[in-house]
Backbone:
């Protein structure tokens, strides 16, 4: 019997034992959308709307940082003149959580009062994305 013949049963046993754990790890606790450009915000909102249609109960959090925070500012509009709030509000009412980076707000002399109603502020957008992935098991999407 060669070494490879001897290892085959151990490899198969390892796959059998870890199989359920691998399947459990593949199902995320939720999804975090990373938006760092307001130019991509419309696409992100469409992606989230489509995502919601297929998985209506899946927790979704949008973390905006850098230029991406702009679409969460109260009264802002996209390049076509459409209100971002008209896209954000229905998603928020459907349970999607929107978070803005406090570092970005501070760097631009903005505060929570400048944001659309219901948007949460986190100290660091990047740190929040990492926390959601590592501590909460969220899948990461960047449209």
Residues:
């Amino acid at each position: 019997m060669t070494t490879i013949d001897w290892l085959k049963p151990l490899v198969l046993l390892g796959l059998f034992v870890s199989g359920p754990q691998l399947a459990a790890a593949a199902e995320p606790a939720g999804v975090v959308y990373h938006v760092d450009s307001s130019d991509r915000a419309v696409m992100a909102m469409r992606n989230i709307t489509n995502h919601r249609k297929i998985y209506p109960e899946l927790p979704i959090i949008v973390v905006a940082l850098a230029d991406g925070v702009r679409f969460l500012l109260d009264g802002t509009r996209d390049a076509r003149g459409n209100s971002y709030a008209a896209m954000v509000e229905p998603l928020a009412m459907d349970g999607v959580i929107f978070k803005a980076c406090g570092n970005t707000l501070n760097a631009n002399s903005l505060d929570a009062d400048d944001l659309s109603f219901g948007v949460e502020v986190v100290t660091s957008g990047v740190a929040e994305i990492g926390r959601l992935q590592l501590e909460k098991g969220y899948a990461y999407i960047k449209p």
About this structure: The CA atoms of residues 20 and 26 lie 10 Å apart.
